[in-house]
Amino acid sequence: MIRLFLFLATLALCSSTAYAQTTKIAVAANMKGAFTEILQSYKSQSGSEIQVVYGSSGNFSAQILNGAPFSLFIAADEHFPLELYKKGKTINEGAIYAIGKLALIVKTSSGIQIGSSKTEIAKAIAKSNKVAIAKPELAPYGKAAIEYLKNEGLFDLTKDKLVYGDNVGVATNYVVTGAADLGFTALSLAKSSEVAKDTNYMLIGDGLYEPIKQRMVLIKGASPQAQELYQYMQGTQAKSILQKYGYMTP
User: Fold this and answer.
1) Rounded to whole angstroms, how far apart are CA atoms 19 and 248?
2) Residue 76 in contact with residue 100, Cβ under 8 Å?
């Protein structure tokens, strides 16, 4: 009986230790397609098990400040990671791993055409029922969309049609499902097979919004697996995948 008790106690301790060592990382929603492929490539070499949560950079930043047990934060901009660094939550300032691009997508079945000129885009917005963007205070791609609309003088035409998603993935899904005819998203998501089968996209010119420099940071106490993945994200294989999805890499 004593031996059985000791065996069960040891088993419980091992299970508890294994659970405590689970590597949990926060990844910006715009990275879902690219990061899924990067993680598969990483796992094929390391065998590590990583728990991934996708969402908005702003929400993740707030969660990490409140003690959420993430080891690595792969953000959609620089602002949120650097704020965490300033507040002593990260190992260092981290690294820029990609530069994202903004795209406008349209639901194919809407019959709305999008062209590259401001006049053509204005016509598309006028014909649309709703225009989807990510919440600009939480998601860098939503912030970039607002910057673009204001810089092009299209914000007044669009503002009453805007519908907001908590992150760029949610905003993109509004267009895919037809809840909105148009939407602003990451080029990487616009190019993904899940989105491309129901939408068409147009790349927004770089000079019409602030460059979307995407930074990642290791949180203090990060697991060895997270540190390995952080290094892998800066290697040639990960960069090749990011470029395939439309990102520029340092």
Assistant:
1) 36
2) yes
Rounded to whole angstroms, the Cα distance separating 75 from 219 reads 12
Spatial separation of the C-alpha atoms in residues 76 and 238, rounded to whole Å? 16
Tokens representing 32 are: 């879902």
Pairing of strands 131-134, 182-186: parallel
3-state secondary structure 153-173: CCHHHHHHHEEEECCHHHHHH
Q: Where are the alpha helices (DSSP H) in the chain?
A: 2-20, 32-46, 57-65, 79-86, 118-127, 140-151, 155-158, 168-177, 187-190, 193-196, 224-232, 236-244
CA-based nearest residue to 163, from 131, 121, 122, 199: 131
Token look-up 């203090």 returns 220
pTM of this prediction? Answer: 0.85
Kindly give the confidence (pLDDT) of every residue in the chain, 250 residues in length, as a single tens digit, with 9 standing for 90 and above: 444 343 344 434 333 333 446 799 999 999 999 999 999 999 988 777 899 999 999 999 999 999 999 999 999 999 999 999 999 999 999 999 999 999 999 999 999 999 889 999 999 999 999 999 999 999 999 999 999 999 999 999 999 999 999 999 999 999 999 999 999 999 999 999 899 999 999 999 989 999 999 999 999 999 999 999 999 999 999 999 999 999 999 9
